[in-house]
């Protein structure tokens, strides 16, 4: 900064040190007599250690027309911003031998191809399954003061080895430790599981299955039977009112007709042709090619029912991020509940907490009634018999326990309700028609559909559920 009797040059450096500007401070009466040289400007900049990226044309303009920049900042130096590093990635070389990754592929018109699905890939012992491509550190920048500016490094990917796999010493690659099938389980852990095959139906001739690996069933799973796997479950037929539980994914070729019995639960994805009167839960996605009818379906991320029919009628569908279908409801306005924006387990936990609170409140009421009766006896007689004194102590202790339980439940309820309010980005997408009778819930926002919509995407905008036409 340089000062004379007539003027002063202020230098301002931005907080990130990527820009420097100058401002002329002078009295109105002195403007005609002000003479500023480029040397004056460079000296002011040097006093603030501004040495890099100085724009000579801006300095020249400042000196030629100083009155223009009285109390007005002129940028005279620009630093070079750092180039952030790129995030690392994980490559899966084993997929090259089996084609693209499992699951349906979205086509150009937004529909999903459910017909060309790859199988769960078989791998051999020693085969390379995953390779980490490291993040880059980026390129440093330069501040207007000449000092380097460190770039933001890319985020390193994390290999998550599961069961029956090994890593190299540098922990950059994962190999199969056995022959088997690849399975992603909870939190994207990579596993290889042995295979247990059933060449027909799961019935009384086979019984329930609990296998540490992947189960392939070439027939149907009948009413009342249970199949549990630490890997994936593949059913080439249909599933009736049975219980299926897999830490990986569940694929059912011919659909689920559960008659409100049993349940389907997968740590990763559930994929099938249709779901009818069933209870289905997936940690990641539920992918259905034809229809979801009168069922309870929960997915940590997405529920996708966008095949050629792609219809959802009745029931309760809960997805952490998005629900997609071609048609929702029907002309009879069949009640259908769609909930997005919050992980389904939070809604279930809140419901469970509310039931527990109701029970605790009722038990407190009964305990207080008992204590009140004993207090009346004490006031009437001046003392309590030995058995009544023991009962009083027991009820008093019970009340303390119940009060603590209610306090903890109410605290957790507030936490869950806060999470429900703050839910992340969410959407409900309609690729053909949505009929009246639909109840939408985004976090804690509720919207009832009272007229028909076509090709619409519903999101939360400015605190309200809003629909926009899908292109």
From TrEMBL:
<dbReference type="Pfam" id="PF20250">
    <property type="entry name" value="FapA_N"/>
</dbReference>
<feature type="domain" description="Flagellar Assembly Protein A N-terminal region">
    <location>
        <begin position="9"/>
        <end position="186"/>
    </location>
</feature>
<dbReference type="InterPro" id="IPR046866">
    <property type="entry name" value="FapA_N"/>
</dbReference>
<feature type="coiled-coil region">
    <location>
        <begin position="392"/>
        <end position="419"/>
    </location>
</feature>
<keyword id="KW-0175">Coiled coil</keyword>
<dbReference type="InterPro" id="IPR005646">
    <property type="entry name" value="FapA"/>
</dbReference>
<protein>
    <submittedName>
        <fullName>Polymerase</fullName>
    </submittedName>
</protein>
<dbReference type="Pfam" id="PF03961">
    <property type="entry name" value="FapA"/>
</dbReference>
<feature type="region of interest" description="Disordered">
    <location>
        <begin position="132"/>
        <end position="155"/>
    </location>
</feature>
<dbReference type="InterPro" id="IPR046865">
    <property type="entry name" value="FapA_b_solenoid"/>
</dbReference>
């Amino acid at each position: 900064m340089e000062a004379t009797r007539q003027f002063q040059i202020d230098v301002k450096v931005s907080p990130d040190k990527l820009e420097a500007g100058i401002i002329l401070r002078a009295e109105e009466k002195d403007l005609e007599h002000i003479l500023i040289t480029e040397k004056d400007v460079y000296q002011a900049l040097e006093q603030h250690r501004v040495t890099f990226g100085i724009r000579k044309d801006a300095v020249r303009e400042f000196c030629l027309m100083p009155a223009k920049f009285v109390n007005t900042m002129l940028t005279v130096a620009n630093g070079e911003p750092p180039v952030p590093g790129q995030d690392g990635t994980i490559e899966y070389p084993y997929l090259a031998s089996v084609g693209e990754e499992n699951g349906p592929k979205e086509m150009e018109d937004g529909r999903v191809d459910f017909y060309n699905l790859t199988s769960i890939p078989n791998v051999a012992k020693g085969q390379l399954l995953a390779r980490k491509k490291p993040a880059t550190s980026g390129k440093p920048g330069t501040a207007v003061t000449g000092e380097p500016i460190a770039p933001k490094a890319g985020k390193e990917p994390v290999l998550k080895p599961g069961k029956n796999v090994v890593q190299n010493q540098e922990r950059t690659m994962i190999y199969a430790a056995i022959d088997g099938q690849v399975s992603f389980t909870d939190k994207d852990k990579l596993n290889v599981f042995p295979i247990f095959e059933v060449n027909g139906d799961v019935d009384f001739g086979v019984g329930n299955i609990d296998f540490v690996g992947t189960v392939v069933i070439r027939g149907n799973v009948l009413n009342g039977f249970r199949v549990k796997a630490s890997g994936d479950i593949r059913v080439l037929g249909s599933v009736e009112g049975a219980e299926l539980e897999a830490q990986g994914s569940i694929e059912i070729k011919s659909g689920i007709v559960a008659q409100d019995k049993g349940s389907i639960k997968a740590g990763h994805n559930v994929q099938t042709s249709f779901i009818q009167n069933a209870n289905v839960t997936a940690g990641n996605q539920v992918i259905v090619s034809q229809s979801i009818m009168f069922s309870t379906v929960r997915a940590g991320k997405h529920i996708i029912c966008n095949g050629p029919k792609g219809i959802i009628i009745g029931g309760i569908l809960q997805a952490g991020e998005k629900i997609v279908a071609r048609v929702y409801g029907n002309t009879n306005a069949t009640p259908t509940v769609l909930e997005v924006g919050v992980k389904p387990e939070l809604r279930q936990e809140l419901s469970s907490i509310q039931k527990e609170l109701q029970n605790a409140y009722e038990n407190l009421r009964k305990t207080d009634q008992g204590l009140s009766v004993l207090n009346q006896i004490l006031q009437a007689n001046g003392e309590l018999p030995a058995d009544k004194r023991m009962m009083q102590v027991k009820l008093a202790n019970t009340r303390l326990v119940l009060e603590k339980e209610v306090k903890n439940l109410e605290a957790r309820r507030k936490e869950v309700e806060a999470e429900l309010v703050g839910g992340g980005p969410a959407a409900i997408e309609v690729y053909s028609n949505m009929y009246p009778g639909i109840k939408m819930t985004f976090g804690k926002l509720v919207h009832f559909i009272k007229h028909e919509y076509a090709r619409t995407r519903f999101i939360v905008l400015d605190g309200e559920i809003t629909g926009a036409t899908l292109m």
